[in-house]
Amino acid sequence: MKNTLLILYFLLFLFLFILSHNFNFAQGDYSFVPQRIKCTPLTIFEVLRGAGVPAGLLSRCLFYFTQKILTLLYTFSLFLSIGFIIYGGITMVLQQDFGEAKKYILWAAIGAVVTILAFSLVKAIEFSLTR
């Protein structure tokens, strides 16, 4: 029962995460124009076709890609924390098992706080290195 509810919550948050993004196709804009990679004047398709990649591309793009990956991890971690808080609340209401529900809520709140502190620390280091 617990595993089934956990899987259902995960799928619900995954569905909500996907819906939260802006899709151009839903708004009638059916054209796809590849965006430029922020750290180079090329598009991803030009790089895949074998266009001349500028020297030092890895060093210029490493910071950009690391930032994107960390943002994805922070977002996933916060969604997971919110899911466990909701799961703990539902467990508390439905099963009247306050001990286990408090553990879920406590550890999810600690996870959310650690995630927010890690995000803040990384942003502070980024600010101090780039300014």
Task: Write a structural description.
The chain is elongated. The protein has 131 residues and is mostly helical. It has a domain of 89 residues. It is built from four helices and no strands. Helix 1 crosses helix 3. The model has no long low-confidence stretch (mean pLDDT 77).
Structure summarized in a few sentences:
The protein has 131 residues and is mainly α. The protein has helices at 2-19, 44-48, 57-95, 98-130. The N and C termini lie far apart (52 Å).
Q: How are the secondary structure elements laid out?
A:
Layout: H1 2-19, H2 44-48, H3 57-95, H4 98-130
Helix pairs in contact: 1-3, 3-4
Give short descriptive properties of this protein.
elongated, 73% helix
